[in-house]
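S., here's the first fold you wanted:
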Amino acid sequence: MKIDKLISACLHSLFIIFFSVSFLSCQDEKKKDPENQTEEIQESKKETERGPDVTTIVTNAMEFKTKDKLDSGWHTFRYNNKSNETHFVLFDRYPDGYGIENAKTELIPPFQEGMNFIIEGKMEEANAAFAKIPEWFQGVKFKGGVGLISANSTAESTIYLEPGTYILECYVKMPNGMFHSAQGMVKEIQVVAADSSKAEIREDYTVSINATEGIVFNQNPSAGKKIFKVDFGEQKVYENYVMHDVHLVWVGQGSDISQLNDWMNWAAPEGLQTPAPQGFKFLGGMQEMDSGGTGYFTADLRPGNYALIAEIPDPQGKGMLKTFTVK
């Protein structure tokens, strides 16, 4: 209990003696238990800091269960993936006048048609299918989200949302090459204008990523629950229609990192497709943003080997795969 609250409560009491005894007792208890005192100070700091609102997203199979409307500003999204598949949550801000029906009828079909042709080895037909992608898609802005997260796991990311219409999507592929988005993993939410003052976010580590230098991360993380800040520098669109992002992966002993590298390209026949490569566990991360964007993600690090990797073709060859060890 804070001292000011204790004094306030006691001043309203008619029992002055009780106040005196309680006050002295509390003082004496704090002197005897410095660990208790540290906890109270930490709680006091937490109460004075304004953190982002926390919104839960749940997937049981092939769906996103979450709120339909949010205020603009900073939000922490806690994604509980209860399914048996690897998923992610990408936040797409659509141009005015477009929404989920446009996604289902105009955008997802040409991507799926193109993917089907790629699997069949018919690249000319695949390119013709991708040419059907509507022009309004150029106006979609990628605003971050929760990175790849393995089955039956939870991840957290914090992003800033401007007012507008957003589509949440996951386009990891099923074993037959069908995008999860084609199976129902799309959801529309409306973000309305509200107080957008910056929340208090204190990162433990910073990851920088840009098209020229790749992922820049030269720190030695320690074990425990950590907050990673991701700063996006120069951004670009790659040959698979996506921009670079950052995903955190636990790397098992003896795992073949080249398999992870190849799997990250959805446009490859078996890329971003269930099952995910063995020996790796996805722990979340930050989805793509425009140049100058900033997002945060939280991870509970344990001793072992890890990788930060982007979801683009050949991330290792582009400097977008960075390994590190937690001791």
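And the second, which I think is the more interesting of the pair:
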Amino acid sequence: MVQRQLPDLRELSELIRLRPFDPDGTRRRLAKALTVADLRDLAMRRTPRSVFDYTDGAAEAEISLRRARRTFANLEFHPAILQDVSQVDTTTDMLGTRAALPFSFAPTGFTRMMHTEGESAVARVAERHGIPYALSTMGTTSIEDVAAAAPGARKWFQLYVWRDRSRGEDLMARAKAAGFDALQLTVDVPVAGARHRDTRNGFAIPPQLSLRTIADGAMHPNWWIDLVTTPPLEFASLDSWDGTVGELLDSLFDPTMTMADLEWLRENWDGPLVIKGIQTLADAKKVSAAGADAVVLSNHGGRQLDRAPVPLRLVPQVREAIGERTQVWVDTGIMSGGDIVAAIALGAHATMVGRAYLYGLMAGGERGVERAVEILSGEIRRTMTLLGVNAIEDLNPGHVTLR
């Protein structure tokens, strides 16, 4: 028989304690986010549908993005037990300098549309955490303003090859003068991918309003107040534009670009050069032979060619072929620190994340980006510890199976 008695109120007070109420709504929301997927859910609730869909969506049927995420989900880790993992080192070499974590913030366009704090907020978080940040040609904060916002951050500039080469030369000169130490050339946009979510939503700069977008905006008054009470939203490195994103890309970017253009690039940029958008082993070999310091295996987050190769699957063969002379990075589909650890175990020197930090930005501005880094860094450390690995350089293909 169980003996029962009336509870003593003093004992109950020790067992049941109310969580202190935090009056800061943003901090309260972000504290509940335990994963990047949680930040995504917050972002979906905090921003208009067209803004969220621009970040979240991909090209055509979005098969490439789903395949990339499914590939990460199907990985299998192989932990080693009875290892001394009291100290875990997450630093890694990126272009000859140590980064505090094995990822950088990828270049993204329209960032101030996600949240008015935009690129400056992302750069400040990168500065605090020792993470490189790449500013996009399609950024909504100027090269000089990003440099002023985070003078101690390690900053890279992402460039598209334009029909007007002189515009590209001007951007490279400005980036160099502002202290950006590497150039990322994106090579997978001869034309814009067909991003059907954006077309259906009338996504453009400035926004093209319809009855549906006005109704959706009424559900997100804080976002609209920020939009209309802060400096006008525009491409900081481009002239004003009145059409859709796809139309802008098609008008600016040069489909005649060839390997010969890398020579032009080297004439105008004497720092480290990263080629982003590599999707075959043959192309990785070509740009490595042409002098690239790093290649990014990427299908543009699934936003260009649908049914493109899954970048993660290319990592082992590309690392074996060029990994001694050129660094191999990978992006697309990364949603957790475990994904990052797996990519490095398969042979990547480092990774790039885009949507992961943008979900944080939409969920809570600079503090949301901070939360995204906290989540990813915690997952990286925990995964390494459970695998029995002390340092990024110790990760190897024996730690993971790519199914």
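Why I say that: The chain has a mean pLDDT of 91. The domain at 91-401 is CATH 3.20.20.70 (TIM Barrel).

Talk tomorrow,
H.
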